[in-house]
Amino acid sequence: MATLTMSRPPFGGFSFENCKRNATLEGETSKLGFSLPAARKTGTTICGVVFKDGVVLGADTRATEGMVVADKNCSKIHYISPNIYCCGAGTAADTEMTTQIISSNLELHSLSTGRLPRVATANRMLKQMLFRYQGYIGAALVLGGVDCNGPHLYSIYPHGSTDKLPYVTMGSGSLAAMAVFEDRYKPNMEEEEAKRLVRDAIAAGIFNDLGSGSNIDLCVITKGNVDYIRPHDEANKKGVRTGDYKYKRGTTAVLTKAISPLDLEVVEESVQTMDTS
Amino acid sequence: MNSRGLRSQLKDSVPVAGLCPQGAYGVQDSLRSGFTSVKNELLPSHPLELSEKNLQLNQDKMNFSTLRNIQGLHAPLKLQMEYRAARQIQRLPFLRSSNLALDTLRGSDESIGFEDILNDPAQSEVMGEPHMMVEYKLGLL
Fold it and tell me: Which parts pass through the membrane (chain B) (predicted)?
């Protein structure tokens, strides 16, 4: 730092000081053939569906870091408020932090109004924040909840556009999940039917997309009640070892046995106290 | 009466449209802002840098113009007077002030954003040099 003093007080928020340095570093390392470490993403399948009494949200549980699975059982359904939950796809840290900030803001807002928060409020807060950062915060979200106006489901894209729909899917496995939805969705389903539909949609994403895998988490939100089922279905169980390479006792036959006892006398006994103070 | 000297007011009052250097006459103030390079000044290091720097200013402009259209000229004038008064409640320049009145007026005491979590000025590792900061504020430097 070539400065002697700072004349302006520091302010918080994102600091862009290192951007030029990072761009140069990236240029240099790519010339040498290396690549900078990738952010942890949740190449994902997330989806939601509105049924008769509420909303069912579903997500897989794999988090990837480039071509490696970073977390086999991560939780992608985030708490926003007692009646609103949000699934997140995209950069894992971005979805985590964004949903936490919006959850705090919604709590402050609901304390200020004295009412249960509405899904539309959460939606507007999220879209305004994501638009402010012009898509550099890579968070694609499925927001669902039940409030005084009934069940609502929104999908929110990283640049800040939102859609209010009866069924939505996001993430790398969204096309597979959407295919299942388009085939079997009916308005005003029962809870069991809706849970089966979401489970099948996430399973389609898990089995047909490399970025999604492991288990299926479900979250059923109805008026006054939330059922966070984790895991709802262990679609990919790790196998149990069937064989063992250790030899059993008796594999080698015993021909003779000779026992000779060792006579040991006590020659000297001394006690050394430990300082345990 | 504004407690800042006239010279320091002139230096900081130009709304930041681009990344032009902050010294007097637009020349880089090497003592305070370090060495320069033409590329640093012409291009922002990140597309969001400019918009984030001007965010508060732009939001206020938008809100005030909406308020003027809805409620007439008096409403934004009165509010701006209150903002100006609240902005004067500060500790000495090198100490951190809580800006409580300004936060309450803006409504930012009821919301949490990235500026409260990342790069918290309370955890800053550097401190401004007291003498130079006070002289800058009084416009003597």
Answer: none
Rounded distance between C-alpha atoms, residue B132 and residue A275, angstroms: 58
How far apart, in whole angstroms, are the C-alpha atoms of residue B106 and residue B59? Answer: 11
**pLDDT tier at B34 (50, 70, 90 boundaries)?**
low
Put simply, whether the predicted model's pTM sits higher than 0.80 gets the answer no
Distance from CA of A26 to the nearest CA of B (A): 14
Identify the pLDDT of residue A98.
94
* Most confident residue range from A8-17, A244-253, B72-81: B72-81
* Helix (H/G/I), strand (E/B), else coil: A18: coil
The answer on pLDDT for A268 being more than 60 is yes
Q: What are phi and psi of B19, to 5 degrees?
A: -105, 35
Write down the domain spans for chain B: 48-138
CATH code: domain A44-234 is 3.60.20.10
Residues A230 and A206: their CA atoms lie apart, in Å, by: 16
Could you tell me if B133 lies within 8 Å of chain A, comparing CB atoms? yes
**Which residue of chain B is at minimal alpha-carbon distance from A6?**
B128
Residue B15: asked if its preceding bond is cis (omega within 30°), the reply is no
In whole angstroms, give the CA distance from residue A206 to residue A219.
18
Helix (H, G, I), strand (E, B) or coil at A69: strand
